[in-house]
Amino acid sequence: MKVAIFGLGYVGTVCGACFARYGHEVIGVDVNPLKVQMIAEGQSPIVEPELDTLLAEAHRQGRLRATTEAGEAVAWADVSLVCVGTPSNENGSLNLDYIYGVCRQIGEALRAKDSFHVVVIRSTVLPGTVDRCAKIIEETSAKRQATHFAVASNPEFLREGSAIHDFMNPPFTLVGTNDERARELLRELYAPVGAEFIAVEPRVAEMLKYVNNSFHALKVAFANEIGEICKSMGIDSHTVMELFMRDTKLNISPAYFRPGYAYGGSCLPKDLSALAYQAQQLDLPVPVLRNIQESNRRHIEFGIRLIQRTGKKKIGLLGLSFKEGTDDLRESPLVVLVETLLGKGYSIKIYDRNVNLAKLMGANKAYIEKQIPHISQLFVASLDDIIAESECVVIGNKDPEFAQILERLRPDQLVVDLVRIDRHRTTGGNYEGICW
Description:
Number of strands: 13
CATH class of the largest domain: Alpha Beta
Strand order of the largest sheet: 3-2-1-4-5-6
CATH topology of the largest domain: Rossmann fold
Order of helices and strands: EHEHHEHEHEHEHEHEHHHHEHEHHEHEE
Number of helices: 16
Helix content: 40-55%
Largest sheet: 6 strands, parallel
Structural class: alpha/beta
CATH superfamily of the largest domain: NAD(P)-binding Rossmann-like Domain
CATH architecture of the largest domain: 3-Layer(aba) Sandwich
Shape: globular
């Protein structure tokens, strides 16, 4: 099948590589010529395990190319997947300008196309967006939905750092459409994945991603609050939560139930804000959803207070991205931590092998340049530099490389662990765990 993918960020690039791996022909579309060039050469514009290998193989086999021309892609493809960003506005509402802009481009391109075309909204959008996209395409193409084209929802459930595995091993494939031709085309597209194919009404599919991510955010905040209570009572929070998670009939899943630092990234904060704002527009009180954000903010402050209590001013931070295995800095609680400590006069050094400031792009680059304009001056090249220049080492994510730091520190150096890099280590001596 011929697949056009609009937006070559995390979701678009991963989808393109995986669809090519399954034998489909893929063309990526992006306004950033550097991303287009990298994809066209079989290189990855982002850090994601296994992605480099898949892109190189797709390039070698001639199954993946890229362009800045939307019309070229639509004319060639059977289906267009929209994977562009949906950032938050300052009030928490969802900014759909990129989605609607791409739909207008697709509509204009469909004017000259005779065959039936399926447009799939893969980006995370609130219920009703697919209907609005269909109207925009009708207006710009002068063609009719269900006769000349169809619009479907196909939300992604990919976690940064394990996106390839998640794409190839989903619990199910979810498609929201009322159009039979679109449903069957997408069934064929995802057939190589081998997962259960579930077709629902578009608004159901649109809503599920927000339900998932809101619950994931809730689980993180809940576990961290339990962790703080346990710490104050001298109880090992991980032992408590491990027992809690053994009840898989009632307590659902162990995912995210690990006390540690605050949640971050490009999905949970944005999606939680959008859903809470939607409830406000409907005059519905949602105290739990609104207090998750406050709890998460407070937990960031709790981690900062632990560092301040050490009395040390030279801080070495291991990890800046919001989780290991990614270079995504957007909404990373570690960025907030650095920004706050710098403002209080601390000397900060950062080591994160996945974050190459020269290669950051798009929203990721814009975010960090806005939050910490001179951050490049804070980075060091190795763990050795962190050890040499720090009085207190803060472990910010679970990169396996960081595990060796505990055995290499001098007796006068302290550790504040935000992720429990060593499952068997508890607070005592020169080691402080945030929730254990």
